[in-house]
Amino acid sequence: MKSADLINLAGFQEVEHTADWAYRVWGRNLTELFIQAAIALYYLADVELTSESSITRKIQLQGVDYVSLLVAWLNELLYLHESENLAFNQFKILHLDAQSLEAEVTGTYVQNWQKFIKAVTYHNLSIQETEKGLEATLVLDV
């Protein structure tokens, strides 16, 4: 497999949405999907990190299914920005099943966050199987 093919197996793309802001993420598995969703969240908000020492946080979340965990995961990242001015650029999913997520994230303080995001919503959210893996479209309340 060519390296260009590997890049396309996981990723994200901004998509048009009438009222809010939306983006599509994809990955070969749930771990890649969750990580791409986080990377895209920071990319779309045009986040710049400071050059201070790295900070690592462990995140543990509960949910009723993978969709609720995906929303909780991204909203927790938004909460850490709002409460501690943190953003992350390294993500390690330690455990993921339909009811729980455990992750370790590493980043630092935010120097600049261009686009304010209130929350990640459940609007039309589902995780779909595709021939290449999994895909979801997330809508952000801005």
Q: How does this model look, in words?
A:
The chain contains 3 helices and 9 strands; from the N terminus they run αββαββαβββββ. With 142 residues, the chain is an alpha+beta fold. It has one domain (3-141): Archease domain (Archease, Possible Chaperone, Chain: A, domain 1). The strands form 2 sheets. Strands 1, 2, 7, 8 and 9 form a 5-stranded antiparallel sheet that branches. Helix 2 packs parallel to helix 3. Mean pLDDT is 91; it is low at 1-7.
Indicate the CATH topology. Archease, Possible Chaperone, Chain: A, domain 1
The gross shape turns out to be globular
CATH class, anyone?
Answer: Alpha Beta
Output the structural class: alpha+beta
The stretches of 5 or more residues where confidence is low (pLDDT under 50) are 1-7
Integer-rounded radius of gyration: 15 Å
Beta-strand segment tally: 9
Question: Distance N terminus to C terminus?
Answer: 39 Å
CATH architecture descriptor name = 3-Layer(bab) Sandwich
InterPro entries: Archease, Archease_dom, Archease_dom_sf
Domain Archease: 12-142
Organism: Nostoc paludosum FACHB-159
Keywords: Calcium, Metal-binding, tRNA processing
